[in-house]
Amino acid sequence: MRAEGTPSAATRGATGVRVAPAAAARPAGDRPPTSMSTRRHRAFYMFASPWIIGFLLLTIVPMVYALWLSLTTYDGISPHWRFIGLANYRELFADPVTWDALGRAGLFALTSVPLSIVAGLGLAVLINRPLRARALFRTLLYLPAVVPPVGAGLAFKSLFDQNSGAANGVLNIFGIDALGWLADPYARYVLLMTVLWAAGNVMIISLAGLQDVPRELHEAARIDGAGAWRTFRSVTVPLLSPVLLFQTVTGVIASVQTIMPLLLAAEPTTGGVTAIPQSNYMYMMHVFAEYFALGRYGYASALLWVLFVLILVVTGLIFRFTSGVVFYNVDPEAKK
Amino acid sequence: MHTRADGPLSRRRFLALSAAGVTAAGAALNGCALPVAGGVGGSGETVTLMVKAEDISPELIRQAQRGLGIRIVTVRYDITKLIAMLTSGNPPDLVRGVGAVDTPYYAARDVAEELDPYFAASTVLKADDLDPVNDLWRYDGRTQGKGPRYGMVKDFSQDSMYWYNTAHFDEAGIAYPPTSEPVTYEEWLDRAERLTRRRNGQTIVFGGSYNGLYEATNLSTLTAAAGGSLFDDDLARIDFTTPEARKALGWYIDYCRTRVGPSAIQPDPNAWDGPTYQAGRMAMSNSGYWLGGMINTDEKLAKVSRLAPAPVFAGGARVSPCQGGTGFWMPRKARNKDAAWRVFEWFFGEAPAKARAGGGWGIPSLKSLRPLMPAEHDHQRRVLAAQEAELEHFSVISFTPYITAEGFKALFNQVAPAAMKGEISVDTLAGRLNSTINEQLDRGKEQVG
Predict the structure, then answer these.
(1) Per-domain residue ranges for chain A?
(2) Terminal CA-to-CA distance of chain B, rounded, Å?
(3) Contacts 24+ apart (CB under 8 A), B230-235
(4) Do the chains contact at B18 and A53, CB–CB below 8 Å?
(5) What interface predicted TM-score (ipTM) does this complex get?
(6) A290-302 pLDDT, tens per residue?
(7) Which Pfam families match (chain B) (predicted)?
(8) In this structure, what are the phi and psi dihedrals at residue B97, rounded to the nearest 5 degrees?
(9) Looking at residue B50, what is its pLDDT?
(10) In this model, does residue B382 exceed pLDDT 50?
């Protein structure tokens, strides 16, 4: 409400430039109209706030708490825990079990990520073709990816049990003696199979990427005399490269954090910590054992922080070394 | 910070407000003291039990609420949640625990309530009626089995006793082990090897399973049977290189190497012997009386099953401990201790205890309830006779307060499979186990103080 005789909200000054009225000239209680920009800001933060608050509460606060824990000997309930500075980190870097576990996780990432990307892409290329019952094939191939990990883990465990599993039944048909699939040295291969079995996730993303490749580019390549393989290599793969990069980064992060199939395929116990084959004793299993079996909250938190930093570094390196081969339709450097 | 009520919400201002919000929310969460679903609802006759689903059925809870007039809420047992509740000062009123391994751990950390005054005043749970197995829940700061009581066993087994299936012995032409006198561990393993049947790399029949409940208690028991002790007097060091511990470890590694039963290098997908034994694929199982609960429900299996005493080592002592002793303990900071004790009395001395005693899934932990153990059929009377004779050889074997059984298992399984596969010698294994486990014991000792 504006008092009588006061200037309008926007008047022209002596130079004719539109200026805002002086605040002093406004009576108390009078509010200036909210600009469009302010309203937009307000709306943005209002709608984004649930996520931002959740991020702060559920990600940043626990991370800072874990960082604090990593500097202590805290074990949950013992009365004499203390601040030890970087001792957990020093121990971690000198601990051969940690390095072995990290090495196994790295090796697993190096094998499982390329294999699952190639498998997923291969399947995507297959079901992107005009086939009869294509929808059915897509559904069937994607089905393993929607099976809950617990169900999948238990199914694989039954399938590969040495004495009653179907896998050894098949081997016996061919006169081959049963193998101890769930023990060393075969346990790592079973783990790899569980990952490849669920390649439907990778397939769906690759399929979406394939369908985004402009048809006219394929036609142009064909007119230029390129065969199917050359077209795939020189047209499809470059256009799919952002998708492949995404799958590589998320795949590496997921594979070094693998724990659920390890727990499920191992010998279960009353307390939850399992007798896991050495070849599957990977980094997150080590973290799990330190947290829940040994109660070393501080040391396990240090392990997680190191893993966090390692993932950041590896992700950065992947971006760095793929910058020359990833083709973006949209400039990734664009700010707006 | 100066802010304008009507100005645009700058990023800086928004983040500042968010940080304040986070702090306030954190304080609020802390104030709520981790109110888990179904947690304690303030003062009054409400008791929170942290249990596993199999410990107490919803029907039993309804009965308790009707009979005692106390509201009971349950929280699923989860060690992480328990620690969170203990550290936030809002623990459950009663917590399930495994007496053989949990008593020293919680008592030494001063988080468990001493229950002696409650037992002294109780008309339901009288001290002279308590089976000696309840000593698993006593700890005097140095020795398990002595000192104040911190909990009670709901029912138990002498877990080194073993069941055997006579049909497999008949098939292999091997004489049955006696049910009144123990065989030696060497004889047991020899029989297990002869009873094992394999075809095309698959084990059709496991000759015998001898894993115990935990590696830690199993190896402690084996060492005691060899005449020694796995831990030193103050329970702060472990030594696998003493002759007795070396003998025990060597025997267990032989058991694993010969693959006569499940182990870390030959995992059993069922996780326990029950289904394999019931399926007729296991000739012997060291599960103790407890397995009778399952065997009794299968008449054909019950008729061919025998319960035998715990084996001995030549020249060693005859020991037959309980490696579990699952029961409840009361956190020191529990809010409704008197009501919790009333539930405790009901659970361990009244209707649920009587029902458990008659079920055959364990020996009752009150001597007065022993007449309720199943003895209707011949096979039940036979089993009962073997069990009653074995009770004379019960003893408590102290476990260390400085590592959990799960921690022991995790460290053991990092090192031992190489020996089970014959890649390293038992002596090398003993040295490595000493090194890794003692390191953890040192940490535990420092934290307990």
Answers:
(1) 96-327
(2) 47
(3) B231/B398, B231/B399, B231/B400, B233/B142, B234/B142, B235/B104, B235/B142, B235/B398, B235/B399, B235/B400, B235/B401, B235/B402
(4) yes
(5) 0.81
(6) 998 899 999 999 9
(7) SBP_bac_1
(8) -160, 165
(9) 97
(10) yes
Mutate to test the interface with B, among A36, A100, A186, A294 (most CBs of B within 10 A): A294
Burial B163-200 (b: 16+ CB within 10 A, else e): bbbeebbeeeebeebebeebbbbeebbbbbebbbbeee
Q: Which of B109, B202, B272, B435 to mutate to test the interface with A (most CBs of A within 10 A)?
A: B202
Distance from CA of B116 to the nearest CA of A (A): 23
Best CA proximity match to A305, nearest among A290, A318, A317: A290
Give yes or no for a contact between B358 and B264, defined as CB atoms under 8 angstroms apart: no
Model confidence at A332, pLDDT cuts 50, 70, 90, reads low
pLDDT at A335 over 90: no
Superfamily of domain A96-327: MetI-like (1.10.3720.10)
Q: How far apart are CA B77 and CA B54, in angstroms?
A: 11
Report the residue of chain A nearest B24, measured CA to CA: A57
pLDDT class for A261, splitting at 50, 70, 90? Answer: confident
Name chain B contacts of A83, Cβ cutoff 8 Å.
none
Q: Would the CB atoms of A172 and B200 count as touching at under 8 Å?
A: yes
DSSP element (H, E) containing A18: strand A18-19
Nearest residue of B to residue A163, measured between CA atoms: B202
* pLDDT tens-digit readout, B115-145: 999 999 999 999 999 999 999 999 999 999 9
Lowest-pLDDT choice from A144-158, A272-286, B169-183, B323-337: A272-286
For the whole prediction, is pTM greater than 0.90? no
A263 touches chain B (CB under 8 A): no
A73 touches chain B (CB under 8 A): yes
Q: How many CA atoms lie within 13 A of A24 on its CB side?
A: 0
State whether B83 and A76 contact (CB < 8 Å): yes
pLDDT of residue A268: 54
Which of A32, A77, A177 has its CB closest to that of B201? A177
